[in-house]
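Tokens in:
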């Protein structure tokens, strides 16, 4: 499992489109952690994140469950954006340049 995770990270990092998506996802998860106790700000960050990711990697159904996970308060500390982008990068095999 760790090997697959590292392979997905390598795929995401080597392609410019996926690299930008990964950086946006990581930044969003960090900002979300910082603004955990201010839900309106946190929700704005999540909406901006999903819009930017839709622009960068196109519409992917896997982004919508990540948005739902990010809206549920106890699950906000889970780095859903980062993990979804890594999973998508591993399944897309470089379709985004």
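Residues out:
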């Amino acid at each position: 499992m760790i090997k697959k995770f590292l392979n997905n990270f390598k795929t995401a990092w080597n392609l410019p489109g996926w690299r930008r998506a990964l950086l946006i996802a990581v930044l969003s998860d960090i900002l979300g952690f910082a603004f955990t106790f201010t839900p309106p700000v946190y929700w704005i960050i999540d909406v901006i994140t999903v819009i930017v990711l839709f622009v960068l990697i196109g519409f992917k159904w896997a982004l919508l469950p990540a948005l739902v996970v990010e809206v549920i308060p106890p699950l906000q500390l889970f780095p859903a954006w980062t993990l979804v982008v890594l999973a998508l990068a591993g399944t897309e095999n470089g379709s985004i340049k």
